[in-house]
Amino acid sequence: MKMKKTIILFILTFPILIFLSDSSIDIITNFVKIDGANYIYSLDGKNYKIPSLYVQRTEITNKDCTELLNWAFLQGYLEISNKDVYSTYQGKFLIYILEEKYSDITFSKNAFSCKKGKENYPAAGFTWYGAAAIANFLSMQLGFIPVYNLMQGSITPKGNGFRLPHAYEWEFFFRGGTKSNNYQYAGSNLLDEVGWFEKNSSKRVQPIMQKKSNELGIYDLSGNLWEWCYDMGISAGAIVKGGAYDSKESSCIYSAFAEFEPLESLANVGFRLVRTY
Description:
It is built from 5 helices and 18 strands. It is an alpha+beta fold. It has a single domain (about 30-275), classed as paralog of FGE (formylglycine-generating enzyme) (Alpha-Beta Complex), CATH 3.90.1580.10. It is globular. It starts with a strand and ends with a strand.
């Protein structure tokens, strides 16, 4: 059994004294700070002011999510019904399906665990509500005010915790932020250098950080898994960006997007978290 560690956190703006497991420490040290700037979003042509952000270097992993699910389960925030995992914090929402075919996280004897060898793979299969719930769980675990009020479908006015990036924020850091070289993909004009897609992935998800990062030191923004964004799209689905292991090159450029229902659990969709600095 891993021992809990006491750590004073300075990396997220101000010090907090809190007890954390090794896995929680891994999560919070996997963020890079990026400077904000104005950015013209490809979808609507509007000029957005991007705040300075902490951005996860990688998509959140199975190891990360297993740790947070176990924490939430111990707090009484989860309910498991057959293969369905529900968050019961702020209402009841489907967040994950324990589907043997593509789920790398399992539940047995009142605990979640990760399939052996899949710890450092990006976590797929979380619904949009699941991604938002994971963001809230991490915020609460670290003593921040959760951003999402899922029951009301709104944002907590004083929420200062973790969240999904807006699609225009996601595009901004995909392109390298203030250090951008205007690459077509995230860090290169050659997709094979920076991302997993239909021609090089064997049509399956790959471990994190196996390709080059972009200018900001952020990995896997092109390909591997689509990533949930904060925003709802034109057809009431939630926006995903970046393309996946089964995508064509055209889906892995900065301006490409798709929309999926927020309650869908999909084998080629994951997410990464941000926090406003």
